Every structure is written in C-alpha cells, then in structure tokens.
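queue> holo job accepted (thymidine-5'-diphospho-beta-D-xylose)
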Amino acid sequence: MQKILVTGGAGFIGSNFVRYIYRERPNWQIEVYDKLTYAGNKANISGLEDRVTLTVADICDEQEIGAAIARNDAVVHFAAESHNDNSLHHPWPFVKTNIVGTFRILESVRKHNKRIHHISTDEVYGDLELDDPAKFTPDTPYNPSSPYSSTKAGSDLLVRAWARSFGVKATISNCSNNYGPYQHIEKFIPRQITEILEGRKPKLYGSGENVRDWIHTEDHSSGVLSILEKGKIGETYLIGANGEENNKNVVELILELMGKNKSDYEHVNDRPGHDLRYAIDASKLMNELNWLPKYTDFKSGLADTIKWYEENEAWWKPEKQATEEKYKELGR
Ligand code: NAD
Ligand code: TDX
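queue> job finished
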C-alpha cells in the first residue's frame, strides 16, 4: 500500500489517524478528503504537507469521491456526522452523510476494485444494563437507539452487503468512546475541560450513572492500522481498551486534575433515549491480529488531554460560544 484516502481526515479521530500514519508509515502518501463541516478543521493536519494533501469535498458527491478513490490504493472511511445530540434535533445530515455518503464510497470502491476499511461505533449494538457482565462482541445483534447510531448501523449493513454481494474488499471496525487531542468541544470530555477553563461548571446529563468505555485515540489508530494491513476481508473487529467509567467519575476526575473541588459540577437535562452503558470485548482483534492498547492509564491520558486544551485555547475558543448556545437551546 502506497497511497491512502482518509475521509473525514480533518476531524477528531481522522486527523489523529493521519498523524499516526504519517509517523508510522513514512513511505505512504495520504490524501485527506473532507467537507470541512463545523467539525472539520484544516489546522488539525497542518505541518504534514510533504506527504499529506487535502481535498475539500463532500463524500456524497459522486464525481469527486469517485475520482479520489480511483487515484488511491485504499480508503479508510471516517467521515460522518458524529454527535448524538445534534442527531436528535437535525437528523437529515446524518442520514445523508452516514448512509448516502457511505453508499457513494461503496459504489466507487466496487467500480475501481479498491480496498476499504469502514470506521464505525459500538453504539450500533444499543446499550447494556449497568450490572450486566456481558460486553459487546462482533456477534451482538444490532439495536441502535439514536438517529446517529441508526445511521451508522445502516452504513455498516451497506458495507457488509457490498462485501458479500459484490466481493468488495471491506473490513469494518466498531470502536468505543475516544478521547484525546483535537476532539470537538461539543463532546463530553472537552466540553467539561473548556467549561472549567472558562470559569463555569461541568454539566452532567441526568444522574451521571451512564457508563462509557474510554479508549485513547492513539489506540484506536493502531487498531485501525492493524486491521487495514492484516485484517481478514469481510470481517468485523471491535476496538476497545477495557476503559469503563461512569460519567460522574469522569467529571470528578477532571475537576480533581484541574485543581477544583470534586463536587463543583451541575446536573442538566438528560439526553432523550440516553444509552445507559457501552462495553467492548476486543478479544478477536487481540487474539487474531495481536493488537494491544498502550494508553490504558485513563488518569494520565486525561491529564495529557487537559494539558492539550489548556495549551491550545486558540484552537477551541472560536467554537466555544456557538457550541454553548446550541446547548442552551436544548437546556443542556
Ligand atoms: P468528527 O465529527 O470529529 O469528524 C468528522 C469529520 O468528517 C469532520 O472533519 C467533517 O468535516 C467530516 N465530514 C462530515 N460530513 C462529511 C461529508 N459529507 N463529506 C466529507 N467529509 C465530511 O468525528 P469523530 O469523532 O472524529 O468520528 C470519526 C468517525 O469515527 C465517525 O465515523 C464516527 O462514527 C466514528 N467513531 C467515533 C467515536 C468517538 O468516540 N468520537 C467512536 C467510535 C467511532
Ligand atoms: O455535556 C455533556 N454532559 C454529559 O453528561 C455531554 C456533551 C455529554 N454527556 C454524557 C452523554 C454520554 O453519556 O457523556 C457521555 C458521552 O457523551 P458524548 O461525548 O456526546 O458521546 P456519546 O454520545 O457516548 O458518543 C460518542 O461515542 C461514540 C461519540 O460522539 C460518537 O461519535 C461515537 O460513536
């Protein structure tokens, strides 16, 4: 593999993946293909220009995406509308980008006989009870709750059908909640860090008992590279790092790491249909492809992430007011 197309490569996880590949595969050329929505930012991939190019276009644009796929060896497909709260209020962009956009990509990789790795989420499996010893496995039935997760589930099913019916060389990964640098401040962890930096209190939805299975974005990147290079065509792999934490504990830890009183947060309206718990069993990826997460010390990963937001105020500040205005309308 010499040339890869990374859709959504100017977003949070995509840009971390681009940096990872730039470092780990010095002979690869990377073309980022990104519409630069509110969630995409050119600055996320700056400084890599000798081996990374940027094409600003929509994955739903048949001509543009077709030409980009034709000039590369493989596509890693991160581009999506990614925020659950947005999907509850404006679902159409989710249907369009996540389902129609993935359809366009599949038709093009089919035509040009290219390899595709599709990035997805553990949310396609729905949620688990707090006291359930079970975790999601690749055999867990799909049962998505929100417009976001249902459109991601739809995109996964399209990929599976194109692999089976047309022999498209596809793999899929479903990963748990990522954290790390360059994450948009609408998301849970960066929202709380930047609220504290602005002198306000963190905001916990509902009781705060909901559990997420946190993984550092570097570990997501290494999992994706393993699957891209060694994964079996047609297979689905789950990526997770045994990082279950409830939201209340995460908020308390952020407050403690930022030198504040642990109880200095507020409860706000809950998210409608709020999934209770996610948990990933990544043993297939570990056993079959010898993958292991490295950044499993959540406290130190969180401390590094806090430091990144403290040092990169110019990156997030321009988005802060508009993001909080959106939340204000929702009472969250
Ligand atoms: P993000 O919202 O930060 O980035 C999405 C990127 O896609 C942005 O750069 C945006 O400009 C681009 N994009 C959106 N619509 C587009 C379109 N129509 N055409 C071209 N580009 C478009 O999202 P993220 O958190 O980095 O998530 C990336 C992928 O990983 C998504 O597929 C998401 O479902 C998946 N995922 C995310 C998480 C998580 O915790 N954030 C966990 C598991 C899986
Ligand atoms: O201010 C907040 N307060 C709060 O309690 C926000 C923004 C969120 N929350 C809660 C809701 C969730 O239980 O924190 C948890 C995490 O919320 P999000 O960051 O919105 O993530 P989530 O809904 O879990 O989805 C994320 O992980 C799976 C990503 O956004 C998805 O793209 C990915 O597929």
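queue> DSSP finds eleven helices and 13 strands in the chain.
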